[in-house]
Write a structure and sequence with these properties.
heterodimer; A: about 240 residues; alpha/beta; Defensin A-like; Rossmann fold; 5-stranded parallel β-sheet; about 30% helix; about 25% strand; elongated; B: about 525 residues; TIM Barrel; 20 helices; 11 strands
């Protein structure tokens, strides 16, 4: 057992900070409403340190409070798709040795999402934060389809080119559109019997590996992912599938 | 503060930009598009949708016996023959009636038949402009940088609540972000809408609802709050027409953005941007160009010359559509990696350079997005540095950065914090830029010099190859677009000898009422 609580300045003080907006005009009663609301959430020692009007009918609050709940950190598992990353040379060498050909990778921002910043960072030669993208690797043949790609078009492309891995990116998360699009892609691949032997990867600032697994993906990559993390994952997974 | 810049290089860049756009203007002059024609129909009073939700403007253009002659002749002939209004003609077409062959009606008769509707359309545009001018005189909007925020709930009624709250919190301009798929729709959706992804559909009714809410707030606050939407994508001219009718104040409108970042056919975009900008010129709408996109998709330090080159090209196209400098909101963005040493100096260099090269343009400055993370606390600090750059270099249109940029479309409270951040920095440092001098030969000046010479090099290369060829070769943002590829190409056509677009004729002189 290793029960943990938030740490303010003392072990187990349970200190948290919250900020939120209430759709009411600000007065002292609004501060009290905010305090009672946070108390109802289960927090104790609630202190509304800032409450003010941000427009005629809305008020904004900053609140400090303590929580008594805790979790047992020793029992929690969230396996990362990101193992120890290999270098470009190591990835290329692994692919050459175990697969013996270039791996075909297709990436797209699926559905209505037009934000290619994530998929571009992973795939484009230039890469992200000084880490070269997959186009730079000798071991990959990369197709970046760009923004607003219908899942039907992505699946058709994947079949026609017989790709090894699909990278689906979602930046916009409004009203669950990312989950809906990820799900639509996974279901279409299943429906077309195209899922087998294919590495299906989800990416985006709100994606976690756990979420991706729940959606039927092989891996999920969230904020801070570098191209080499994805490259290593693809190379290792596909190498592991090779006989011998 | 003042950069010492090479005036001859600036003049050379302008000459090159002119040489780049002139051959494209020849192409534009000889062509029209379905969206241009739909805009003409809408300005004549065609509105509404058929039973299947297809706009009558689309039904009408799709039914033209010869689109090469333009919709105006067909409409004029139908009116002359039937005595109907343009709306009645479009409704009849949607019900299955064929349009009469315009060749059967004398030219003078069909032109005369449409004249009252043309004049009514122009009068609505001019009345909206006059009303804006009067409102701005009575309700001055305050000093630039003008604080600009976005609303993007997908639901116009929620957007309205957020927009009014933002105005009360200090916003001087509110933009309604469009649903992300709308730029690829070859029609303008209809009516008040409550479903959208990453934004809210641009429709005439949504424009009207939002303008009315902001007018009410403007009166209450004693300052005019501006409204912005997007004339980009496949329907640039139609959106410009609807925005003119409903008194929007600004429109995102770039001469190349759709080509590069939305894979819209280049010929379509060039023709569409021209007519949409002619309409913007007449309606007094300030355009916002999209150079920030070069910086979000590639390295911001390397792309700085491309931004400046694009600004020159946007300026050249805008001039040729009759748009005065005071309506050219040329774009730039604060997107340099926050980990880069002296990145702030590079941002100041670029922003000040733009300010001095385009002294009369209401420059549009976009906030950091690419390097924003879930660390909202650091994000708020980066936004503050952006705010400082904007006020010290006298940017005009200031899109407030959100601390939750990388997380979600802004919460109401996020917007309030962003406005507070901008107000604080711009108040405490209001005249900072006027009090300091840039070190001669220092880092800022050298950077500005490099960016300018880099832009001249790009423009030189494009001028030699021609703009369409340069785009095919991937000169801009490393993106290659074929001349006859991309979306909307089938909607481009050559005008025939009988072609008539009465609005283009009226707007061509650039004659704008006082």
């Amino acid at each position: 057992m290793s029960l943990v609580r938030p740490y303010g300045d003392t072990q187990d003080d349970g200190a948290v900070q919250l900020s939120f907006t209430l759709p009411i005009a600000w007065d002292e009663a609004a501060d009290e409403a905010a305090r009672q609301l946070v108390a109802k959430m289960g927090f104790s020692d609630v202190s509304v340190v800032e409450g003010r009007a941000i427009s005629a009918g809305f008020s904004f609050f900053v609140v400090y409070a303590r929580t008594l709940v805790a979790v047992d950190a020793s029992t929690i598992r969230a396996p990362s798709a990101t193992g120890a990353a290999l270098s470009i040379e190591q990835v290329d060498e692994l692919i050459a040795r175990r697969v013996g050909r270039k791996l075909k990778v297709v990436g797209a921002c699926i559905g209505t999402d037009a934000h290619t910043v994530g998929i571009d960072a992973i795939l484009n030669m230039k890469g992200y934060k000084g880490d070269y993208g997959l186009e730079r690797y000798r071991g990959f043949e990369v197709f970046n389809l760009g923004s607003q790609i219908a899942v039907e078009d992505l699946v058709r492309f994947a079949r026609e080119r017989d790709v090894d891995a699909i990278l689906a990116s979602q930046v916009v998360t409004q009203k669950g559109s990312d989950i809906a699009n990820f799900t639509a892609l996974a279901e279409l691949l299943e429906a077309e019997n195209a899922r087998e032997g294919l590495l299906l990867i989800a990416g985006g600032p709100r994606v976690t590996n756990l979420l991706a697994a729940e959606l039927g993906y092989d891996g999920g990559f969230g904020r801070g992912t570098l191209p080499r993390d994805v490259a290593t994952f693809i190379a290792r997974r596909i190498s592991d599938r090779q006989p011998g | 503060m003042e950069l010492r810049i090479d005036r001859e290089a600036v003049a050379r860049a302008r000459r090159l930009a002119g040489a780049i756009v002139d051959p494209v203007e020849d192409f534009i002059e000889r062509h029209s598009t379905v969206s241009v024609e739909r805009a003409v129909a809408r300005l004549c009073g065609v509105d509404g949708v058929d039973g299947a939700g297809v706009p009558l403007a689309n039904r009408l253009i799709d039914a033209l016996p010869a689109r090469e002659a333009g919709v105006a002749r067909a409409l004029g002939a139908a009116i002359a023959e039937s005595g109907r209004t343009p709306q009645q003609v479009a409704a009849a077409v949607a019900a299955g009636e064929a349009l009469p062959d315009p060749a059967g009606t004398p030219e003078t008769a069909l032109r005369a038949a449409l004249r009252v509707h043309i004049d009514a359309g122009l009068a609505r545009i001019d009345a909206a402009r006059a009303l804006r001018t009067a409102l701005l005189a009575r309700l001055p909007q305050g000093e630039p940088p003008l604080l600009y925020v976005i609303v993007a709930s997908g639901n116009i009624y929620e957007d309205r609540t957020a927009a009014v709250a933002a105005a009360e919190g200090g916003a001087q301009i509110v933009a309604v972000i469009r649903s992300t798929a709308q730029s690829l729709l070859d029609y303008v959706p209809f009516g008040a809408t409550t479903e959208g992804f990453g934004g809210t559909y641009a429709t005439q009714e949504n424009f009207r609802l939002m303008r009315a809410a902001l007018d009410e707030a403007s009166e209450r606050l004693g300052r005019y709050v501006m409204l912005t939407n997007y004339a980009s994508g496949l329907c640039m001219p139609e959106i410009a027409a609807l925005a003119a009718l409903e008194r929007l104040d600004m429109l995102l409108n770039d001469s190349m953005y759709g080509i590069l970042f939305r894979d819209i056919n280049m010929q379509r975009t060039f023709v569409d941007q021209h007519f949409s900008r002619q309409l913007n010129a007449r309606s007094g709408i300030v355009i916002n160009t999209g150079e920030d996109n070069y910086l979000t998709t590639a390295d911001a330090v390397e792309q700085a010359p491309a931004v400046l080159a694009s600004q020159f090209v946007n300026e050249a196209f805008a001039r040729r559509a009759g748009l005065p400098a005071a309506q050219m909101g040329l774009g730039d963005a604060y997107e340099i990696d926050p980990d880069l040493e002296d990145g702030f100096l590079l941002q100041v260099a670029q922003a000040q350079l733009t300010r001095q090269i385009f002294p009369d343009a209401p420059l549009k400055y976009m906030p950091p997005t690419k390097h924003m993370t879930g660390n909202i606390f650091k994000g708020h600090l980066i936004d503050a540095m952006f705010n400082l750059t904007s006020v010290m270099t006298h940017q005009t249109i200031h899109l407030c950065g959100m601390l939750t940029e990388a997380i979600h479309t802004p919460f109401l409270g996020d917007r309030a914090l962003a406005l507070e951040n901008a107000r604080y920095v711009m108040t405490t440092a209001r005249h900072f830029g006027d009090e300091i001098e840039i070190k001669a030969g220092g880092r800022i000046e050298l950077r500005a010099r490099d960016v300018l010479s880099g832009a001249v090099r790009i423009l030189d290369g494009v001028a030699q190859r021609g703009l369409m060829r340069a785009i095919e070769d991937g000169t801009f943002a490393d993106i290659r677009r074929p001349r006859d590829g991309g979306r909307g190409y089938d909607g481009v056509f050559a005008k025939d000898a009988a072609y008539w677009n009465p609005f283009a004729d009226a707007l061509a002189g650039g004659a704008v009422p006082a």
